[in-house]
Design a protein that fits this description.
Elements lengths: L19 E5 H15 L5 E5 H4 L2 H9 L4 E4 L2 H9 L4 E7 L3 H10 L4 E6 L5 H11 L3 E6 L13 H11 L4 E7 L11 H24 L6 E4 L5 H5 L6 E2 L29 E9 L5 E4 L14 E2 L5 E6 L4 E5 L11 E5 L3 H5 L4 E6 L2 E7 L8
Parallel strand pairs: 1-16, 2-3, 2-9, 3-4, 4-5, 5-6, 6-7, 7-8, 8-9
Antiparallel strand pairs: 1-10, 10-11, 10-15, 11-14, 12-15, 13-14, 16-17
């Protein structure tokens, strides 16, 4: 059930009820503009990943800056974006259940929609859904770029699956999905470059073998916030699927650039505003934001503007802070911005974005695809 918003436009930030998901609009808009500027000279297009933001409002803002469409991981996310007016959506994931495929095909009546496949055994069900809906569904072959998760092997296996798709009267071969997720958080630039170089070579080899078979490969998609410039400059990838760049979480900020410094391409824009609910002992404060407010799978959140404070542990409703030896802990009722370690699951814990600018609430946007797991 959608909860009442924790704030109203015009309120000061310190009047927002906590815990709340807040979006620094100046930093957020700068991130969108920065990505558009970085990709413009490469020829690669942004197909931003909506699994991060789960919001048609944000999707429209990305497309206004040149994104060709959106990625999602779930059919339910695709439905919400399509109903929200997004015209071009890729489910960058496998969908095999007949009921989900029927829903996916139904979206094709109001938006361009595509899905991934990595197994010939999945194709008949996709064909059946497309035929029942009276349309042709676009299918991308997912290749394993080295992550060891989903994906058929690059080369002959991928080509054989593409031929199967292209031969179907109900399907359209759309290209290759080659996202290397585990490369995104390798800390050094050299590690990321080696992994993405190998991924690009596998995709390049597959595209050439498709060409030799007379099969056009309009899309090679992949790339994330940790590696997108490597894919964009590879000469192979045509679409970049970054999502977290819009918000920039604490874990991505731990990556290093080629010069050895921490990545600072994008600004921290997404925060969980938390309030001190208990200050029982010197040097200790307890926040009202625990597991249910901020994801900790990629490490504990950091405290915006307060490096002397450490978020040391979380339980369901509590987050424990420790202050340095010469630092006074925050006082009862004080509010702090937390930078999530992992923005995607943090967003999915909240019903509303509270957009702030200049210390005031400017807008409220629903997290429309919250909990869209099907």
């Amino acid at each position: 059930m959608l909860q009442p918003p924790p704030a109203q436009p015009g309120q000061r930030e310190d009047e927002i009820d906590t815990p709340a998901l807040i979006l620094d609009l100046d930093a957020f808009e700068a991130n969108l503009d920065r990505m558009a500027a970085l990709l413009a000279p490469t020829g690669a297009k942004l197909r931003a990943h909506a699994k991060t933001h789960k919001s048609p409002v944000i999707a429209h803002l990305q497309m206004a800056r040149g994104a060709v469409g959106q990625c999602v991981q779930k059919v339910a996310e695709a439905e919400i974006l399509a109903w929200g007016g997004i015209p071009d959506i890729l489910v960058s994931n496998e969908v095999v259940a007949p009921a989900k495929l029927a829903r996916l095909a139904a979206i094709g009546r109001i938006a361009r929609v595509a899905v991934c496949a990595d197994d010939p055994a999945a194709i008949p069900a996709i064909e059946q859904a497309a035929a029942a809906a009276g349309l042709r569904l676009t299918v991308l072959v997912e290749i394993d770029p080295g992550a060891g998760r989903c994906g058929v092997a690059p080369g002959p296996e991928a080509v054989a699956l593409a031929r199967r798709i292209a031969a179907s009267p109900h399907l359209r071969f759309g290209g290759l999905q080659a996202y290397h997720g585990s490369a995104q958080h390798k800390r050094t630039h050299a590690e990321r470059a080696a992994l993405i170089g190998a991924a690009a070579e596998g995709a390049r080899r597959t595209v050439e073998q498709l060409r030799q078979q007379g099969i056009d490969c309009p899309i090679v998609g992949g790339g994330g916030t940790g590696s997108f410039l490597l894919e964009a400059h590879s000469g192979v990838y045509t679409e970049i699927q970054a999502g977290s760049y819009a918000f920039m979480d604490a874990d991505y900020a731990r990556n290093f650039n080629a010069d050895g410094g921490h990545v600072d391409t994008f600004r921290h824009a997404l925060f969980v505003l938390a309030g001190v609910m208990s200050a029982p002992r010197p040097g200790i404060a307890v926040l009202d934001a625990g597991h249910k407010a901020v994801a900790v799978d990629s490490g504990m959140p950091t405290i915006w503007g307060r490096p002397e404070l450490r978020y040391v542990s979380a339980s369901d409703e509590h987050g424990k802070l420790e202050a340095g030896a010469e630092t006074t802990a925050p006082k009862l009722g004080e509010k702090l911005r937390l930078i999530p370690g992992h923005c995607d699951p943090t967003v999915d814990r909240h019903d509303w974005y509270v957009g702030v600018r200049g210390g005031r609430v400017e807008c409220l946007w629903p997290v429309a695809a919250r909990g869209a797991m099907s």
